[in-house]
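Homework help board

Subject: predicted structure for assignment chain

Our instructor gave us this sequence and asked us to write out the predicted structure in token form, then describe one feature. I got the tokens but I'm not sure how to describe them. Can anyone check?
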Amino acid sequence: MIRGIGTDLVKNSRIAAILTKPYYNRFLDRVLSPLERQTYDKRGNERQVGFLAGRWAAKESIVKALAIKELQFHHITLSNISEDDGTSGPLVVTLGEQNMQLVRQRMGESPLSLHVSLSHEEDYTVAFAVAQHKT
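My token output:
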């Protein structure tokens, strides 16, 4: 049963502007999980903007799909599964224990699946999330 859907659209230039500010490291720490930060740090500047925009949009869409605005972004980890042909497969979402406590308080103990899709197009990144109770 679908519990909720969420979407978010990010203008990549807004993310690029944040990365020029003195507080950009605090922003990164607030948005990215430690694993995502490692991936981010390995990328070149142009790829960093797209990566960060994608993570922001995906996490915003997850918050909207779950209707729990208190979720902490830095506890959410999005990981790509690599396909056999070397391309990126589906995203795997890990909410982290602190966020899962909020989810259980609001939605109960029934198992939950999150499905997330990301797309990048020139100046914009869009994400779509579906929260589904497993039955």
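Reply (TA_rk): Your tokens look well-formed. For the description, you could write something like this. The CA atoms of residues 12 and 101 lie 32 Å apart. That's the kind of observation they're looking for.
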